[in-house]
Amino acid sequence: MRLxxxxxxxxxxxxxxxxxxxxGYTQFAQVAEHAYYLPVAEGEYLExxxxxxxxQIDCALVADAHRLQKxxxxxxxxxxxxxxxxxxxxxxxxxxxxxQVAEITEAAMRGELDFSASLRKRVALxxxxxxxxxxxVITERLRFNPGVEHWIATCKQHGIKTMVVSGGFxxxxxxxxxxxxxxxxxxxxxxxxxxxLTGQVLGExxxxxxxxxxxxxxxxxxxLNASQTIAIGDGANDLKMMSVAEVGVAYHAKPVVxxxxxxxxxxxxxxxxxxLLTM
Length: 279
Description:
Number of strands: 11
Number of helices: 12
Order of helices and strands: EHEEHEEHHHHHEHEEHEHEHEH
CATH topology of the largest domain: Rossmann fold
Low-confidence stretches: none
InterPro entries: HAD-like_SerB, HAD-like_sf, HAD_sf, PSP
CATH class of the largest domain: Alpha Beta
Enzyme class: hydrolase
Organism: Methylophilus luteus
Pathway: Amino-acid biosynthesis; L-serine biosynthesis; L-serine from 3-phospho-D-glycerate: step 3/3
Cofactor: Mg(2+)
CATH architecture of the largest domain: 3-Layer(aba) Sandwich
Oligomer: single chain
């Protein structure tokens, strides 16, 4: 295995202390400006993990088999993963109902509410909103999370196909796909009649099971096996998708997701995924 530590706060003093806790004979190797790895034996390394958490450093024990060259598909959530906002909350802000919608969103992401039912409930509150408000959210509020361009470029460099699969909406997912140059995009479609939202979602909801199904379907279509897949997300509705991938990465995620994911990033950006899988 290798111990990967990363974060802008890392200093040589940190590395020296961690090296002492591990008791290794080799030295840390640098893989990026703020990322280092150290070959280690199997173990819990609880002291290392506690120290890193206290020092605002991301820390992960990465299996030797988990290297970029081994993978062929990365499936990613959109809201709060690839982008910094929850789109439906920002749409709701256009109607001055963001607090009540955001409360439902947060509960759903923690896994406390059925995702499909909560989505329909939130979308119903948007009835009558002019369609142009969706473009306004893209123009004024949609921003990509740090490191996302680097991670997608890394995927392209290694021939890893990329897909955004979102419980959000096509207007945003298509924008993200086109801007980042992703290979595939799957999301929900808002019904719009006469230039206004009807408060309805068309077709099957992209919920937790659908996300997992889309990953498996594309994996099989590409002729890959489970060991060649990566999934990245932040909310409870990403857990099934992450569980069917070889590598599940919790990105600045809810506690329930961090507890179940193979790897978690809480400090660095999405470029940190590349650092985990590079050696």
